[in-house]
Amino acid sequence: MSKTIDPENLNGYQKAAIFLMYMGEEYTTQVFSRMKEQEIGEVAFEMSKVDQITPDILKIVCADFNVKYEGDPKMIVEGDSFIKNVVTATLKDKEAKAILEDLERKKQARPFIWSRNVNTGTLSAYIQGEHPQTIAMILAHMPAEIASEIMMNLQDELKGDIAMRIARLGQISEDVVRDVDKALKYELSGAVGPGGKAGGIEVLVDIINGVDKSTEDAVMEYVEEDDAEMANEIRKLMFVFDDLTNVDDTAMREILKKVEGQQLTYALKTATEDMKAKIFANLSQRAGEMLKDDLDAMGPVRLTEVEEAQQAVVRAAKELEADGTITLGKGKDDVLV
């Protein structure tokens, strides 16, 4: 549950899952007995994602916990056995079996989701020793933002090769995906449709959209030399900073809410006049004046800092799209008419 989830923005089911696991099986059984089956299923699903509960999260959910556990880095919990014991003690056999089977299907639909809770440097070190085809399979099944960070950490001579393998990756056996997922998670434990997801160009594009400029250039240069037609197709699908001029004003205002002021200032350092006009048109008069003053006062900055800021803006946009808040086109060929 502590995997990249903001403790200040936990939803009701997440809070209930944390609190009940803290209170114990007997207490949870009593609570479940008063809940609807659908509610039990939702809370149980959130419980299944809990590997550890940090004091910071418990402080939000249960005010007394910080006093009792202060100094402990985390509390290890056995989510699966906890859920099974509580659900089977609360519901009839048939109903409990249905919830547990549904829960297992949901969990299997999220291979490598645990990678969000692992230091990407550590994860990269483990993965780099694998065969390039195995690395490609792992990255294709990971959350795109984690795969992007790992791609940046790979040796430069590997990046292009891995990218090509991801783009050409076919259907992977469910058993293979599950075995690699479990093995890698086990190796890192100390420091989900049925799987079988294919790779492909769209998977690669999602990864490239999150990497830094040098990694993007290395990947695209390799792809261009190996398969110019594929490189052209990738570019058509990629969403880059300049594509933000094509989003509607409502979406742009949502994006600007997520971007820090300094990031926006740096991002506009080399922006086109069209992009600047788009940004200023969606800021309040006061905010626009402040941004203009910051731009005028800004001295020379490294190009890498500007590119990083622009990528941060793109990531904010992609996160909003993933949440369903806005809709983005995947490149200039996707503009609606």
Summarize the model shown.
The protein is an all-alpha fold. Helix content is about 65%, strand content about 0%. The chain folds into three domains: about 5-110, no CATH class; about 115-235, Flagellar motor switch protein FliG, alpha-alpha superhelical domain (Annexin V, domain 1), CATH 1.10.220.30; about 240-335, Orthogonal Bundle (Annexin V, domain 1), CATH 1.10.220.30.
Task: Please give a structural write-up.
The chain has 20 helices and two strands. The protein is an all-alpha fold and 337 residues long. It folds into three domains: 102 residues, no CATH class; 122 residues, Annexin V, domain 1 (Orthogonal Bundle); 94 residues, Annexin V, domain 1 (Orthogonal Bundle), CATH 1.10.220.30. The chain has a two-stranded antiparallel sheet. Helix 17 packs across helix 20. The radius of gyration is 23 Å and the shape is globular. The protein starts with 11 loop residues before the first helix and ends in a 15-residue tail after the last helix.
Label this structure with key terms.
337 residues; 65% helix; mainly alpha; Annexin V, domain 1; 20 helices; 1% strand; two-stranded antiparallel ribbon
Please describe the topology of this protein.
Elements: H1 12-23, H2 25-32, H3 37-48, E1 52-53, H4 55-61, H5 65-69, E2 75-76, H6 79-90, H7 93-108, H8 120-128, H9 132-141, H10 144-153, H11 156-167, H12 174-188, H13 201-208, H14 213-226, H15 228-237, H16 249-258, H17 261-267, H18 273-281, H19 285-297, H20 303-322
Antiparallel strand pairs: 1-2
Helix pairs in contact: 1-3, 2-6, 3-6, 3-7, 6-7, 8-10, 9-10, 9-11, 10-13, 11-13, 11-14, 13-15, 14-15, 16-20, 17-20
